[in-house]
Structures are given as C-alpha cells and as structure tokens.
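Progress note, project year one: complex with molybdenum atom.
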Amino acid sequence: MPGITQKFETSNRPDEWKIEQGMVAAELPVLDMTGPETKTLAPQVFGELTRDDEAIKAVGNRDELFTRERKGWVGFVEWENYPEKKAAAHKILTSQTFPPNPEFQLGPIPATNPVLPGTRWKMWHHEVGGELTQIPDDSWNLVLKEKHQDMLHLLQFPYNGEPPKRLVTDKVITPNNLHFVRNHGGIPIIDKEDYSFVLDGLVKNPQSFTLDDLMDESRFPRVEKLATIQCSGTRRIEQILKYPGQGDEVPQAPWAEGAIGTASWVGISLKKVIKACGGLVDGAEHLEFYGADTYFKDDEAMNYLVSVPWSKVKANEVLLAWEMNGEVLPRIHGYPLRVVVLGYIGARSVKWLYRIKAIKNPTRAPVQSKEYLYFPQQVGKHNLRMSDGIQIQEMPVSSAIMSPWTKQAVIHNGSIRCKGWAYSGGGRWPERVELSMDGGFNWYTVPLDNLSEKRKWCWRTWEYDLPCDVEGWVEIVVRCWDNSLNTQPSEVRTSWNWGLHVTSSCHRISVYSVNKSRPLTKARLDEFEQKGIPFGPITVPLAFPSQSWEEYEAFWAKHDPRDARE
Ligand SMILES: Nc1nc2c(c(=O)[nH]1)N[C@H]1C(S)=C(S)[C@@H](COP(=O)(O)O)O[C@H]1N2
Ligand SMILES: [Mo]
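Model obtained:
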C-alpha cells in the first residue's frame, strides 16, 4: 500500500495536542505566576515501589496479630478496642509504598468491567494479612453469588456496583439482586448462630443482643418500612465530567444514577433496644454504629464507624433490620443485621453491625469527620479543613432520567418517552416532577397518574411522553419539587463540590430528536428503510442525497438568486 512514509522531527510528545486540550490533564504542569516570569512546576512522579521487609517482619506474626475475632465471624478483625493492633497495621502500611490511584478524573475512564480493580485496597488487605488475606476473594465471590449478572461493577474491591439504567426504575421496589452496593471494605461472613451485638457506652445497662432476642415480639414490636436508600455519591459522574475533585471514596465510586434503591425492611426500632438497656445516661446525644468490615484511611486500619443523633433514634426513624423485601438480608447488604436510617444518606445505614455505643458528640471516626462532607466550592485541596465541610445527613431533593440516554438519537412521533426517579431526603417526598426539552426554559408537568405511589421515606418512579416538535439536538432536563417546595439547582456547576457529593442539580441529557410526525422526516425514514440502510450513527454522512439536482434547479428557478441585485 502506498502511503506517507517520510518521518519528521519534533520535540512534542505524541499526545501533545490532547494535553493542550485538557484531555490528559493529569500531565499538565502547574503554572506558577507568583514571580515576574511564569514558571511551570512538574507534576508528581511515582517512582519504584519500596518495601522494608525487615520492618514488616519485626511487626510480628500477622496471622496471630490479626486473627479471627470470634467464632463464626469470618473476615472480622476488631480494631477499635485495640490501639496496638492499629499501630501494627499502620507500621506495615507505612513500611512500603503502594501504586498510585488510577487517574481517570483527569483522563479517560477505563472501558472495562469492573471499571476499576481496587488494586491498592486488595494490596492493603493482603499486606496486613491474617484474617484479611482471603477477604478480597471471598467478597468478589459473594458479588457473583448475590448480585444480578447485569450489575455495573464500578470497583471490584471494595465492591461498588449499580444496576444499569434500564433496571434502576424497572420496578418501584428494587429487587435485592439489583440494589446498588457501596462497600468501604470486604464483606464479613457471619453465622447467625454466633451473632450478637453489644449496646454500650452511655446507657444505663449495657447489654448484648442475639438475633433471637431482637426477633422476640414479646420484647420488641416488629416494624416493616418501605424506604429508599441513596448514596450521597449518586450521580457523581456528572460532577467528575464537569470538574475533577477529590475525597477518598471518589476513586472508588464514579457513580451514575443507580446508587439508589428502595426496599421493604423488616426489623425493630433502635429506640426500643435502648429502652431495654434502661435508656441513655450522662447527656448522651449520639449513637455510634460499628460495622465489622475493615476500612483503610491514611494508612490506618479501622472498622466502619458513623453516628446519628439521638433525636433521630427517638423519632423511631432508625431501624435494626434483618429482612429485605421478604428475604433474609443478603450478606452483601449487611447480614445478619444492619442499621437502616430513614431519610439519611446511605453511609449512616451501617451493615454487619457489631456494636452500638451511646456517646456525647458525633463520632470522630473518619467516615463521619473526613468523608461525606459537603465543602464550599472555593475550598480546594491545599487548604481543605475537615471543619469546612458540612456533614451530610439528609439528602436534598433530586431526580434523574433513566431513559433515553445522553447522546442517544430518538425517532419519535412528536413526543419522547422518558422514564426516571425522583427522591427527597429527610422524610420529604416528590410532589411534582417536571421535564423540559429545551434545556430548562419551558417545563411540562408529569401527570400525577404517571408517578408511583407517594410515600414518606421513598422515591417515586415516573414516566412521561415529553412533547418534542423540533429536530436535532435537544436538551432534556428533569426537576422535582418536594412537599416542602424545595427544588433542584439548575446547573451542575451550582452543586459542584470538592468531594463530589450530593449531585442535586437538574439531570440534563442531550438527545438527537428525529420527529417522524413531520411528513418530510417520515418520507426520509421510509427511504432509509427501503434501501436497508441503518439510520445511525448520526455522524456517518448521508448515504443518499436528500435533494436531487432537479429539485435544486427547480428551487433556484423559483427564487431570487443568492446575491441581491443592485
Ligand atoms: N459496615 C458498613 N456499612 C456501610 C457501608 C460500609 O462500607 N460498611 N457503606 C455505607 C454506604 S456509604 C452506603 S451508601 C450504604 C449502601 O448500602 P447497600 O450497599 O446495602 O446498598 O451502606 C452503608 N453502610
Ligand atoms: Mo454512600
């Protein structure tokens, strides 16, 4: 094949143009304009991984140090009562270096499934060893066993996955195998027979409870609640695509709109269990929940800990649940027992609960104090203080379009079939869902009959044939008004924050509209069909002209010429 073979000299990198266009922006040098001349500062380079074997060996036998805590609790290491264990794990983690996080926020997102492997997390578990060694494998096997084959795996370990759009709102109650999963560590495998949790701290009579104790209806009235759980990272991908951000969980969960699910939970109110312990003492104001999984943050190993205020518990809005949609709680969702905090972000609904402690102040554990914070927009990486962030509890009103998808071409008869969800935190509920096809200038109200039933603590799914006369690129937008008349910011820029949480702005998608109720369009589409030529993709040039030369000449015969006469 003849071609151009002549080589050329250049000092540019092959991807120079992409770098200059911000498409590989991690490679961009930082500009220092503080002096008279602008200087460029080279980005961090990650060198060879290092490892101090002597220091790691000196920590001791890992199988003994990090041994199984209790009979029947596979993969559980208790960290919180053992500062010496934490110190040993810290020593191991700081005596070596680990590969950097994969860069996908300032570069392309991998086209793989799982999207991200979680290499560092797997290594941390293997390096600490002992009871944690098997966990990454065991956890992935549980994903394969308990989740739907079509889940979108965002991170293999710790496992994070969401259902594909077509299944997110397919049912008003999310089937268990399609409910999103957000894990910060591995899945502990706990036998029901060996299970109990302890309620201690500032309570009158600290006690431990087995599942049989909790299920004894003569002691605790059983409750069943339909409730939506939403991760505060839901729809984070819109923020990432706008501006990259940070936050420890960002590299783990580039969520789309599926980190939300609705289930019927059976259990008891935590308030009754606290009563059974004689109530709170000494001005206890918060309840701290301990999950049996291991979380790593800043080279420290710990359990998954968060807290909620007593006022929330007192209102009977915090459940201890063992059943999900009429089935035993799946292992991946917290078996044998999880917390369900109605109307709060998912992060507070602790899975694999092993302890509840009554405390004076909100927990200082990193998940609460360093993560799940909503920072002001103008606070950046270099001067980020934990106290600058609002701790996220109730989610604001939000909504999302599940069909069609952005960049999709839609052939329709004058209206575009749309589907999605709407939700508001804190026990508020969607009252009105509106759609726009012109970027948010004019709005159509979704008829109430097209919304699923109104319930406190729950989302509403909706569908609507959105009128759309025009053709070409249109921007479909959804917004919701909740019962307090709260609504959503118009643009993602308005809700953008460094931790990429709470994407509450209106969900916007670009759709290429082809309106077949227009005679000309219908004739053209018929032609495509007769010729057996697929209509898409829209970027492919037309295979046959839309106007003959005869028609073109006829036009000019009838009209003024292109340039006006003197
Ligand atoms: N023990 C424990 N509980 C946890 C988590 C976790 O990593 N460990 N993740 C939390 C977060 S951030 C969310 S959004 C919800 C998700 O619940 P699901 O995985 O059952 O959907 O669980 C919460 N409870
Ligand atoms: Mo979450």
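The pocket of molybdenum atom (ligand 2) is lined by residues 182, 231-233, 346-347 (CB under 6 Å).
The chain has a mean pLDDT of 96.
No further modelling is planned for this target in the current period.
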